[in-house]
Amino acid sequence: MSRWKSLVAEVRADVAAARDRDPAAQGVSTFEILGSWAGVQALLAHRAAHALLEAGVPVLPRIIAYATRAVTGVEIHPAAQIGSEFFIDHGAGVVIGETAVIGRCVTLYQGVTLGGTGFQRGKRHQTLGDNVTVGSGAKLLGPIAVGDNAKVGANTVVVEDVPPGATVVGNPGHPVRVEGKRIEGPDADWIHLPDPIAEAIKGLSGRLADIERRLAELDGDNGPAGEKPTEISPRTGRSSAGG
What we know:
Blueprint: H1 2-21, H2 30-36, H3 38-54, H4 60-72, E1 75-76, E2 81-82, E3 87-88, E4 95-96, E5 101-102, E6 107-108, E7 113-115, E8 127-128, E9 133-134, E10 139-141, E11 145-146, E12 151-152, E13 157-158, E14 167-169, E15 174-176, H5 196-218
């Protein structure tokens, strides 16, 4: 009985998380969120399936997971451990593997995969800390750890541990910082993330211009007058997260 009371408390926290983190849920009733938010529906079904699995009920937890995937497009293994105030935005294409462990106040966007890397047994999926945000289409592969307050950029492929408070972008993903400041809050401002490829090209362009100047000096020439390497400026403007 205590397990089911805890389940009811988790459901309330999950609905509150959806209302808090989804601008479209502002002013929407709890009944409407439960009836039309696919991510919330998938999570609630998982809560029930996980409780049944822990109670030793055979077959039924997997049937619930299968039916939930067919209806919502979200696949969560019944054995996955998910903390309170979890939110899946939109939900379509999200996959959460069997040995995944997810902390509190975590947000996943559509197309996120928390998957394995092979046919090994045992712990083969991720452990996500508290207040982690994972952007659309990101793939986290293998038994890696993502620290508290970390962010994973859209379409990032993460195969190594992510330090707490870091923002990870790229393929393979690696930690970066935005304007030298730690990112706060659950919202995802994916527009203003740094572009490591652009930064590398900018550095190479500057070195190439320096080599051309030195060659011109050796040849007694002034080189291509007035030419400067193309500047690659960081994206500016209004935040995609509404900030």
